[in-house]
Write a structure and sequence with these properties.
Length: 610
């Protein structure tokens, strides 16, 4: 999704901005651009369709020299990907702006501005902001005031960075509904939509809040103003994950690196949260125990991969805590008449903490009679974290591959902690100790599964020429099958669907033939025998079966049956373990097909528009 970088530095900023854009590439985008204010106060701009490398090529031999600049990666919403629609957008040759988000009243504003003589050259909603800012600058003769007056007229979501040649020593930033952080340098100051973009220049960040406007001035001065225009101080926080997270560390792709980090990040997510035999309920916050005691229902809301984690949690919370649980995708939940029974806990799951629909669902829920809200999230300081009553941070570290892997398994671990914590406050006493012990041993088991990589790579060859695939699972492994199908379609572009295995004969069996590989998730649980009969139905129709099965199951590989033996694991924790071979399968199929594994076409890492 769109990315912003801005800099007010003691040196030329082109390289800082370019490096920032490269670090934002993982979010998904289709064009890139940059504007720099030269020492003689001229605005120079360069834009290119495609990758940041295309912009870089244009800048070679044609460098943008100057100490102030703004840059952007665009993911098309209003208007196709083209150079004209790429940011920065200008109003004449005086003002440049980059924007993330969507301006909902852009048509009305455009009509008004056109009537006042402003000429539009793009199809974007952002150009409206450029002209609006220019108009307000003419009236106020001050860029900060022009931004404050303009944002008051905008409806929708925005993060902005703005420069004007009449004030060649300031960059103004503003946010509402889209994230923006200030990077604190020594005698320098920076802006970005994601701290990762700036780790090459600083590890100190101020997280701007809704409605904040900031003025960065030459010399490193940072002045923040809240939505009411009052000067405010917000503390700078040290970014903890270090810079190594944004390199591939010897792996061919970020996705593979992140798959292999899973045992380590799961251990980090468990750290400090387990007692001898029980989960520590106050891991969810000091008020958690009291809040959880009154919980009679749980509503879980999320999007994409995070939604699949929620689907698994439903089985866990109902089984281990006896609390009825509903799970729904955020974009559906927020548009229906939701009935909230007394004592309902509202839980959001999100890697980024900025997904527009999930955030809107939280705000919608806060208007209703929930007992409280809990966010399970991977990004400290994100909007979801700030706006929830309770939070549990996953410790996946920055995830760069668009297809989520380690964020998903750490969410599952966090959700198991939630199920155990709810069970504990409702009187479970000691009977969950084996699961707590299993969690401690989980990182070791994950390492054993990762050692199956070579075997899975060999299996993947059977998929490279296929156009469709069917994933089957039962119980808590149905959402794991869904996640496996999602991974395969996201990065290999093979159409994949998942079904609860019991539904096979109610439709999808009609599709099964030798051209449709069928992947079954078969842990050794109470549904195993039923799953085996479902698999017979596939074999009888000439289907090619790939079974990921517990090593204790008696099932031998033969001509049309490929068995991958997965280390034995308790029923409760099996969904976490069985996720990993499915991630590796999708990864190797995508590599064989030669797709862009880390940045699949049309997808974005963080979807900050509805
Ligand atoms: C996008 C990403 C997915 C992610 C989903 C939800 O679609 O490509 O990988 O699962 O957003 O994101 P969140 O940050 O809320 O978990």
């Amino acid at each position: 999704m769109c990315g912003i970088v801005g800099a007010v530095a003691a040196r030329h900023v082109q390289e800082i901005l370019l490096e920032g854009l490269r670090r934002l590439e993982y979010r998904g985008y289709d064009s890139a651009g940059m504007a720099v204010l030269s020492d003689d106060a001229r605005l120079n701009r360069q834009r290119a369709v495609g990758k940041v490398a295309a912009l870089e090529e244009k800048l070679e031999g044609n460098a943008l020299k100057g100490n102030l600049g703004i840059a952007h990666t665009r993911w098309a919403t209003h208007g196709r990907p083209s150079e004209q629609n790429a940011h920065p957008h200008q109003s004449g040759d005086s003002l440049a702006v980059v924007h993330n988000g969507i301006i909902e009243n852009h048509e009305a504003l455009k009509g008004e501005l056109e009537a006042q003589g402003y000429v539009f050259t793009s199809e974007t909603d952002t150009e409206v902001i450029a002209h609006l800012l220019s108009r307000e600058f003419t009236l106020a003769q001050d860029l900060l005031q022009a931004v404050q007056r303009s944002v008051a007229l905008l409806e929708g979501a925005y993060a902005l960075a703005v420069m004007h040649r009449a004030q060649p020593d300031v960059v103004i930033g503003a946010r509402k509904g889209s994230p923006l952080v200030v990077g604190v340098g020594i005698g320098e100051a920076f802006l970005a939509s994601d701290p990762l973009a700036l780790l090459q220049v600083t590890d100190r960040f101020i997280y701007m809040q809704e409605g904040d406007v900031v003025r960065l001035s030459q010399g490193g001065s940072i002045e923040l103003f809240d939505a009411g225009g009052e000067r405010v101080e917000r503390p700078a926080q040290i970014f903890e994950h270090g810079d190594g997270v944004t390199s591939k560390g010897g792996y061919r792709h970020f996705m593979l690196k992140e798959i292999h980090e899973q045992s380590q990040v799961i251990a980090a997510t468990l750290e400090g949260r387990l007692g001898d035999h029980q989960v520590l309920v106050n891991s969810f916050g000091t008020d958690a125990e009291q809040l959880f005691q009154g919980v009679r229902q749980v509503h879980i809301i999320a999007c994409g991969t995070s939604y699949h984690a929620g689907m698994v949690a439903r089985y866990w919370i109902e089984k281990l805590a006896g609390v009825p649980t509903q799970v729904e995708v955020a974009s559906e939940y927020r548009y229906r008449e939701v009935v909230v029974p007394e004592g309902t806990l509202f839980v959001t799951l999100s890697q980024s903490g900025e997904t527009a629909d999930t955030l809107a669902a939280l705000r919608f829920a806060k208007q209703r009679d929930y007992r409280g809200s809990l966010a399970i999230c991977n990004v400290p300081g994100s909007s979801l974290v700030r706006e929830s009553d309770l939070t549990l941070m996953t410790q996946a570290g920055p995830e760069i591959g668009v297809a989520s892997t380690k964020a998903f398994t750490t969410q599952l671990v966090a959700l198991m902690l939630l199920a155990l914590a709810l069970g504990r406050v409702r009187g479970a006493n000691g009977e969950h100790a084996p699961i707590v012990q299993g969690l401690r041993e989980l990182p070791g088991v994950i390492n054993q599964v990762l050692a199956l990589d070579g075997e899975i790579e060999r299996l993947s060859m059977a998929f490279a020429e296929k156009h469709h695939a069917l994933f089957l699972g039962r119980g808590a492994h149905f959402p794991i099958a869904q996640e496996g199908a999602l991974k395969l379609k996201e990065i290999s572009y093979i159409h994949a669907e998942a079904y609860p295995a019991g539904e096979l004969k109610h439709g999808p069996l009609a599709l099964v033939d030798s051209e449709m590989p069928v992947i079954a998730v078969a842990p050794n649980d109470e549904l195993l025998e039923k799953l085996k009969s479902n698999l017979q139905e596939v074999r009888a129709r000439g289907g090619e079966l790939f079974v990921f099965a517990d090593e204790s199951i008696r099932m031998e590989t033969n001509e049309h049956l490929h068995v991958l033996r997965v280390p034995a694991i308790s029923e409760a924790l099996a969904p976490i373990v069985y996720t990993i071979p499915l991630q590796l399968l999708a990864y190797h199929v995508a590599v064989l097909k030669g797709t862009d594994v880390d940045q699949p076409r049309n997808l974005a890492k963080s979807v900050t528009v509805e």
